[in-house]
Design goal:
Structural class: alpha/beta
Distance between the termini: 9 Å
CATH class: Alpha Beta
Helix content: 40-55%
Order of helices and strands: EHEHHHHEEHEHEHEHEHH
Bound molecules: adenosine-5'-triphosphate, magnesium ion
CATH superfamily: P-loop containing nucleotide triphosphate hydrolases
Number of domains: 1
CATH topology: Rossmann fold
CATH architecture: 3-Layer(aba) Sandwich
Shape: globular
Radius of gyration: 18 Å
Strand content: 15-25%
Largest sheet: 8 strands, mixed
């Protein structure tokens, strides 16, 4: 199962991505989490220490790797065909809850005019992970899908757009939803996160109804998650006692069911 997670800044994309990856790994799936946010922080949420997280060089910034894949020895000329399966083997990082992490760094869209070698490598790596691999793959993305080319987007099983109960995140969520559908993603649904009460849930539900969005699950605001984050701990440590983490597990089961 390949799942992409997007939404406005701060809505909880990284928590949902980490929680889904955790739930899949617990169910026995070989799981790869991809941090495709230009300001990556999935490593911490997956339980690596700040030191371990800092040591990870994003693929797009790994000059030696990019050069070894695309270099021709001629300046301005680079190779377009190279293998990427070995990058998964050599550069994925094992995290404490059995999820393998790959930190991509910045991925630019085909329309951005960026034809740099680093972009060629991260784009083919993303394509490889989504289209060719058997593992469960969760992609924590920035707000938007522009950088996911159509050939990759069509193979994403589910696109999750995370929203909170406020108009800005809902409007941005709707925009991302529409872009994802246009990009050819097959199932695009909304997950409401940090929901504190019934009024907030009703706000998201009526917006979804009005705009034809499907809500796959509602994740409550959970002080345990916020407190863990304050202490610099991974929220995954509290998976068995956190209402938010339980809701993410239910979300995972729904995704698996829809994908069966
Ligand atoms: N259900 C929840 N209950 C309580 N706190 C939450 C919940 N979901 C997320 N948070 C907190 O909200 C903050 C933002 O979450 P997170 O980093 O997952 O969002 P994001 O969308 O990935 O942000 P960014 O756009 O910066 O990458 C974090 O401090 C996180 O602990
Ligand atoms: Mg994030």
């Amino acid at each position: 199962m390949k799942v992409a997670v997007s939404g406005k800044g701060g809505v909880g994309k990284t928590l949902v991505s980490a929680g889904l990856a955790y739930a899949l790994a617990r169910k026995g799936f070989k799981t790869i989490a991809i941090d495709a946010d230009p300001s990556p922080n999935l490593a911490l949420t997956l339980g690596l220490s700040p030191e371990e997280s800092r040591r990870i060089v994003p693929i797009s910034e790994n000059k030696a790797l990019i050069e070894s894949k695309t270099g021709t020895g001629y300046s301005g000329v680079y190779r377009l065909t190279f293998t990427v399966d070995d990058i998964v083997r050599d550069y994925s990082v094992r995290t404490p809850f059995n999820v393998n992490l790959i930190v991509m760094g910045t991925i630019r869209s085909p329309g951005s005019g960026c034809t740099c070698p680093a972009n060629a490598v991260v784009r083919s790596l993303l394509h490889h992970l989504v289209v060719e691999r058997d593992e469960a793959v969760i992609v924590d993305m920035e707000a938007g899908v522009e950088h996911v080319g159509r050939g990759t987007a069509q193979h994403v099983d589910h696109m999750i757009v995370v929203v909170n109960a406020n108009l800005k995140s809902l409007e941005i969520g709707r925009h991302i939803h529409d872009l994802a559908v246009k990009a050819g993603m097959r199932r695009v649904s909304v997950v409401a996160n940090k929901i504190e009460n019934e009024t907030q849930q009703a706000v998201v539900e009526s917006y979804a109804l009005e705009h034809g969005l499907k809500i796959l699950n509602v994740i409550p605001y959970d002080a345990k998650i916020a407190e863990a984050e304050l202490r610099g701990e991974t929220p995954l440590k509290y998976a068995s006692e956190s209402t938010a983490m339980k809701a993410i597990e239910t979300l995972c089961e729904r995704l698996l069911m829809e994908n069966a």
